[in-house]
Amino acid sequence: MSRNYDTLKKVIDEIKSKVDIVDFVNSYLSLSKRGKNYTALCPFHAEDTPSFYIFPETQTFHCFGCGAHGDVITFLEKYEQISFLDALKKIATYAGIELDINQKEEPVEITFNEEVSKLYTSNLLNLSSNHKLWQYLKKREINRELVEEFELGFATGQEIQKVIEDNLFDKDIAKNTGLLINGDKEFFYNRLIIPIRNNVGELVGFAGRQIEEETNAPKYLNTPENKFFKKSKILYRYYKNKKFIKENDFVILVEGYFDVISMYKLGFKNVVGILGSAFTKDHALELLKATNKVVTMYDMDESGRKATLSTIDALFAKDFQIAVSKYPAKDPDELTKKHDNKYIAEILKSSYKFHEFIVDYYAEKYDLSNEFALEKYLKEMSRWYKKIEDVGRISYLQGFIENISKKTGKGTEYIQKILERTSALIPESSASSESYSQSKDTVYVEKDIRHDIAKSYLFLWIKYPQYREILKNNFSEEDFSNKLLKEFFTLTSQNSDIGYLLENSSKELSDLIVEVWKIEYFFNPERILSSLKESIRRTKINQQIEELKKKLHETKDLSEKTNITSEIIQLYSKLKTIN
C-alpha cells in the first residue's frame, strides 16, 4: 500500500510527544518502578521473572527475554496483533489527535458482503442444536467457537432482500456481488456459508457447501468472480493467519476450506487454502511477504499430486524452500480426525524435498523395468534437470541425481550423463510450463530489462542474490537519479527481505518489484550488469552535456563558448564509444 510517509512521520512525532509510554502501557500491564525505569512480565512470551523494561527517557520498551523492542505504537501493534495503521489510529484517538491520512474508502460491494455475512452467521448461531446443519457440523467436529472464528453461516434464501431493505442498498449492488441472480433469485439457498476474504481482509465472496449429501446439486458453489473476487489471487485465511506464518517461518498449503479449519483447530494456524484453483505466481508473491518456506499438504489422490507438482513448478524458480508431506488419509481434514497434533507435527517434520517428490511422482507412472518406459522416465527427469539448472538451484541437482539412481538402479555417473545430454537437447521454451508473457519473446524481455536502469538493477538484485554484493561494490545511491531506485536503496538499508520491501514500498516501486519478480526467464547476469554500467555512464554523460548546453546558452564570452562547444563535442564522442 502506498503511504504518505511525510504525513505519517508528523503524526507519529505528534503522538510520541503527547502519549507517555509509561501511562499508556500501564493501562495494559502491571508496572513496577525500578530506578528510573519500569518493569513488568513480558506480554509477548511466557516468563516468571520480569524482563520487560520501559525506558521513560527514550519513550521505548525492550524485553531482555524475547528481544521485543519499540515505541508506544509498536507496543500496541504487537500487543493487540493489529496493523501499523490500525495501531496508529487507535493511539491517535487516545491522544485526541485527528488522523488525516488519505485512505481508500471501502467499496459498497464489500460493505454489502459484510452485512450479508453477519446475517448468515446470525442464522446459524440461532439454529436449534438439533438442526441438520448443526448435526452436519458436529460430524465435522466444528463447534460454535469455530463457527464464530471462521464466520460460518447458513443461507435460507431470504437474506439478500432483507439486507437490501434494512440498509437501503441498491439492488444492483447485490447483483454485482453475485448474490442475486436471474432477477430476484438468491444465489445461496439451504447451504452452509463460508465467507472468503482477500489477502488484506476484505470480504469479497462466499462459498456455499451443500448439507444434504443425497441431492444432485453441486457440493460447493462459489459466488462468481468479479473485480473484487479473484481466486487466482486469494489464499483462504491468509489475511488472518499471516502472523502465524511469520512466527513459524513456514506455511502449510492445503486445498479445501475444511482442511484449513481442521488444521487450525489442532493448533496449526500457519495454514492457508488455495480455494480449489491452481497455485499461481500471485499466490507465491503473497506468501513471500511472510515466508519463503512452504510445506504442501494437498489431498492424497491423483488430483492432489498433480496440484503438488504444479505448485512446485510455480515456487521452485522463486527460491522458495519446498517440502511435500505424505500422510495416511485422503486429506488433512480426515487426518486431523484420526490423529492428534503431535502425530501431524511429525508428518510435517518428515516431509520430503520437492525434487524427491518429482522423482517418485514420475516413477509411479512408468514401469522402470521396461527399457522404453525407462527412456521416457529419464526424458521427464531431464526436463526437470534443465529447469532446476536454469533457475540456479544447482545445490539440488546432486540429490536429484542420487534419487533417480536409487529409483532406477543405475549408477549416478550414468544418470548424470543421460540428464546432461538429454537436457541439452530440450528447447528453452519447453523446459518451463509457464512463460512470462505469450506476446513477448525472450529477446524482447531481455532488451526491455537492459534498456531500463531501474529494471536492470532490480532484476540482478532479485533474480541473482549472489550479485547483491557486486552491485553494492560497483554502485552507490549517487549513481542513480531514478526516484524508485533511491527509495529502494533507503528500504534495503533497513531490511533486504523482499517481503518487507513489498509491504513498505510505494505502489510504484512495489509494482516494479512484482513485475521483475514475475519474469520467468533467467538471462546472463554479466550481460545485464555490463548494460547497467553502460546505461549509467551514458546517463551521466548526457547530464553533463545538458549542463554544458545550458552554460553555453547563458555565456556571452566567445572564447568560453568555443571551449564549452569543444567539451560538448568530446562528450558526444564518448557517447559513441558506449554500446
Automatic annotation (TrEMBL):
Membrane-crossing ranges are none
Q: Which residues form a coiled coil?
A: 538-565
Q: What is the free-text note on the cofactor?
A: Binds 1 zinc ion per monomer.
Q: Which UniProt keywords apply?
A: Coiled coil, DNA replication, DNA-binding, DNA-directed RNA polymerase, Magnesium, Metal-binding, Nucleotidyltransferase, Primosome, Transcription, Transferase, Zinc, Zinc-finger
Q: Which cofactors, by name?
A: Zn(2+)
Q: Where is the Toprim domain?
A: 249-332
Q: Does the keyword Ribonucleoprotein apply?
A: no
- Top class in the EC scheme: transferase
Q: Which GO terms describe its biological process?
A: DNA replication, synthesis of primer
What is a single Pfam family found in this protein's UniProt entry?
Answer: Toprim_2
Q: Name one GO cellular component term.
A: cytoplasm
Q: Which GO terms describe its molecular function?
A: DNA binding; DNA-directed RNA polymerase activity; zinc ion binding
Which Gene3D superfamilies does the record cross-reference, listed alphabetically?
3.40.1360.10, DNA primase, catalytic core, N-terminal domain, Zinc finger, CHC2-type domain
Q: Where are the zinc fingers (CHC2-type)?
A: 42-66
| Enzyme Commission designation | 2.7.7.101
Q: Which HAMAP family match?
A: DNA_primase_DnaG
Q: What functional role does this protein have? A: RNA polymerase that catalyzes the synthesis of short RNA molecules used as primers for DNA polymerase during DNA replication.
Q: What is known of its domains?
A: Contains an N-terminal zinc-binding domain, a central core domain that contains the primase activity, and a C-terminal DnaB-binding domain.
Question: Partners and quaternary state?
Answer: Monomer. Interacts with DnaB.
Mind telling me what this protein is named?
Answer: DNA primase
Q: Which organism is it from?
A: Petrotoga olearia DSM 13574
